[in-house]
Amino acid sequence: MAEPVAPITPAQVAATSAVASLATGDAATDSKAVESTAESTVESTTAEPATSSAETPAEVPAHRSHDPSNNAKRTDPFMFGQRFLTQEDNVFEYNAWDHVETDDAFKEYSEKQYELQRGSPVSDFDKSRFNGDPAKWWNLFYKNNTANFFKDRKWLQQEFPVLNEVCEPDAGPKTILEIGAGAGNTAFPILARNRNPHLRIHACDFSKTAVDVMRKDEAYDTKHMQADVWDVAGTGDESAPPGLGPASVDVAILVFIFSALSPSQWKQAIDNVARLVKPGGMVCFRDYGRGDLAQVRFRKGRYLEENFYIRGDGTRVYFFEKDELVKIWTGAIEKVEGAEGAEKVQTTVEADSEAAADPAALFTEEDAPFTLENMGVDRRLIVNRAMKLKMYRCWLQGRFRRK
């Protein structure tokens, strides 16, 4: 049964309708279903509406066209689409809108939700249970969902063009390391499009069950792919996956995996990745941003630490601020005009990190192993036209370069 929430004013109804529609329980499938839209809506700005437009493709910009032959996809992976919502638009005409900031009503509602979450944290007993053996919960998840829960991430090579480059016939020997490979929904689409006879894909996951699923898949080709159990935050002999030595990886992929780590594991994980990636190599990153619908809808007994939660299935998830994430990986504070602005960013980053990890235990800009290539905030308004629901999503997508 759902926990009661604070009353919502009429002005908040539209902004919070998605939360209300999903607050029918705290089952694992509910929580994961909300978050799985992170996989299925990356390219949703080209989705078709329920009815066709009477306008011809020549009269409509390609990114707003209902004609499949005229649905132009973006070429800049950090544009995150060009379908901007204006006051003149019918919000329910499309499945999704790009660059949509949450309105004040939804922000107010979200802050009230965070206060309720902080007021009813995970018990000390459960905190020890969930943090003590996180592999157990991921094994259970993949045992229950096998390979059918998430869709193949065919969009990754559009979002990260380097994944196309290493697959070209003349690219030469290249190694991709996917961390948190799950059931192979990233590795297999890359393998299917590969034309490089010298490409190697190392697909690693914390869960033995997930790795078994990959190895049993008919697309598993040991000539180009190797799947292994590996904890990215492992220490000692377990700090590197089987078959990979120092500076052996050209591209590392971390998609919705860093958020599954405890903040106390962040530095170890980055150190391990840094040892594996060649100087000049790339880390392709995508994860959850603070204020995402999946965070706002958490109820009692799910709050571990600030922005860090336990889902109904026992797996963990953290929601990042953009500046915080850049600081974690590069030690750098985003440049803001004026001393007052810079001081504000520094204070915000330290405050966000303080509850979860000692900022001093992370990196300074001088000793950080990575520099920032790009970090974008992908804000979407996902629309359920049939039910007239609006869902605010927020993801962070970036590229880090090994020094």
TrEMBL record:
Residues 22-76 are annotated as: Disordered. The keyword Isomerase does not apply. Its EC number is 2.1.1.-. It is an enzyme of class 2 (transferase). Pfam families: Methyltransf_12. Residues 177-283 form the Methyltransferase type domain. The keyword Membrane does not apply. Keywords: Methyltransferase, Transferase. Residues 34-59 have a biased composition (Low complexity). Signal peptide: none annotated. It comes from the Eukaryota. S-adenosyl-L-methionine-dependent methyltransferase. Belongs to the methyltransferase superfamily. METL family. This is tRNA N(3)-methylcytidine methyltransferase. It comes from Sporothrix stenoceras.
